[in-house]
Structure formats: C-alpha cells, structure tokens
Here is the input.
Amino acid sequence: MGGHHHEIDGIRASLVPASEARGLAPFYLAANKRLRTGVARGQAVSIDMLELDGSALYEAWRRNPS
Here is the structure.
C-alpha cells in the first residue's frame, strides 16, 4: 500500500463512527505498509491485516488510540 498518509494508491478513506471503527486501521497507519492478507474490493482494512512490526507510529497509536 504505497503512498502518503493523505493519499494511498487504490485506497479510498472512509469516515466511520467510532462505534464501528474498532479494529479498523487508521488511514495514516496504512500508508506504505505491506498487507499480511488479501483485501477484497470495498473491504475495510483492519489493523491485523497490516505488517506494523517496528512502526513507531503504530506503537504511539496503540498506547493512545483515541
């Protein structure tokens, strides 16, 4: 998933209510990350679908996800 955190090739950001966002990957965390699994067209990308090992940004988000 290449691109900048404001624009990722082939991906469209969606705003979802916080009550529905649990487990979904924030757009800025997905930029330039590899996927661990295939993603169907229109499927939301969850955190567990991304390779985030060694990501300082992910660790900061994980400590304070709000």
About this structure: Strands lie at 3-4, 7-8. The longest strand covers residues 3-4.
